[in-house]
Write a structure and sequence with these properties.
This protein is α/β, with parallel strands linked by helices. It is built from 5 helices and 5 strands.
Length: 124
Amino acid sequence: MSTASHSLLIVDDSRMSRMMLSRLIADLRPDWRITEAASGNEALELIERDPPTLVSLDVNMPGMSGLEAAGRIRLHHPDVRIVICTANIQDYVRQAAEKAGVQFVSKPITPESVAHMVAFFEAE
């Protein structure tokens, strides 16, 4: 898959986290189209209108958790690559992410964690 075809949806209730992720990824992959959502429900609405190829989800958000959103995305869009990007590094979160078939990247958002995320997104 060529990087030019990627569209990334960043889902996090923290505006600062969304901005940091967006900026770091845009620095690494300026040709990716990046959109943002502040909640799982908003993400699902955006995905129904225009499914991205990649999704980054926070876990702890008001309303629907990132894990629940990941499950729903998987159900309707099995080809979307999903990363859970969260400060919640409890074992059950890692296990739930693994069970849902999504990659786990822990916060804080750093150039290293973003590079890890991009590498997963681009892996064949």
